[in-house]
Amino acid sequence: SQTIHQWPATLVQPVGSPLSLECTVEGTSNPNLYWYRQAAGRGLQLLFYSVGIGQISSEVPQNLSASRPQDRQFILSSKKLLLSDSGFYLCAWTSWTGDEKLFFGSGTQLSVL
Amino acid sequence: EDKVVQSPLSLVVHEGDTVTLNCSYEVTNFRSLLWYKQEKKAPTFLFMLTSSGIEKKSGRLSSILDKKELFSILNITATQTGDSAIYLCAVEASGNTGKLIFGQGTTLQVKP
Questions:
Q1: What is the pLDDT of residues B18-61, one digit of tens each?
Q2: Which of A87, A30, A92, A42 is nearest to A64 (CA)?
Q3: Set of chain A residues whose Cβ sits within 8 Å of the Cβ of B99
Q4: Which of A35, A38, A72, B96 could serve as A88's disulfide partner, Cβ 3.0–4.6 Å?
Q5: Given an 8 Å threshold on Cβ–Cβ distance, is A41 in contact with B86?
Q6: DSSP string covering B58-91, please?
Q7: Which CATH architecture has domain A3-112?
Q8: For all residues of chain A together, what is the average pLDDT?
Q9: Do A106 and B96 touch (CB under 8 A)?
Q10: Do A2 and A24 contact (CB within 8 A), yes or no?
Q11: CATH superfamily entry for domain B3-111
Q12: Shortest CB distance from A43 goes to which of B98, B99, B105?
C-alpha cells in the first residue's frame, strides 16, 4: 500500500534562516506531488505541484521554492524565511483511481519568529 | 480565475442540531467536487461528487451537487461534539495535474 512521509512535524525558525521540508512517497511510481499551505483556521492554498522529476509548477509568487530530485521525493525550500511564511504545510500525492483524489502527509507546523 | 467559496466561515451549534455547509465554485472544465474534514492535522476525505442531484451519504453526513447552479452542500444531522472540525470543499478541474482548488473552509464548533 501507498504511504506518504513528511517531516519534521513541528519547526520553529528565526526570520532570515533557511528552510527545507521533505516529503517522500512509498508504494507508487510517478505520482503527482503537491505542496499546500494553510494559514490558521483557513483553507489550503496550493503552492507547488510536480508531475515528474525536475518538473515544478508554481501556483503563487512567493519566497519559497520546490524541487523534485527523485521520483518519490518532493522538497520545499527557502533561502531566507519571512514572518509570513508561518503556517501549516502539507505534502500530498494524487491517486488516479478511486474517489479519494489526494492523500496527505501528516503536515509540518512552521513558526517563523 | 478558478475559485471556491465556502459559507459560513464559522458556525457554532449545540449537540443534536442539524447543520448545512455551503460550497460554490467557478472553475473551467469541472471534473469533481470533494469534501474533507480536518480536525488537527491532515484533512480526511468525506465525499467525492461528480454528478448533479445524486446524494452521497455516510452515516449522519450527506452531500449533494448542483452543476447547473455550481454549488454543493454538506449536511450533518444530529451533530455531536466529535463533528467539531474545519470542513473543506475542493474542486478538481480536468487535466493531468490532479490539483485541487480549496475553499476557505467552514469551522464548525459543536457544543455539548
A1: 999 999 999 888 999 999 999 988 899 999 999 898 999 999 99
A2: A87
A3: 32, 34, 46, 49, 59
A4: A38
A5: yes
A6: ETTEEEEEETTTTEEEEEE-S--GGG-EEEEEEE
A7: Sandwich (2.60)
A8: 91
A9: no
A10: no
A11: Immunoglobulins (2.60.40.10)
A12: B105
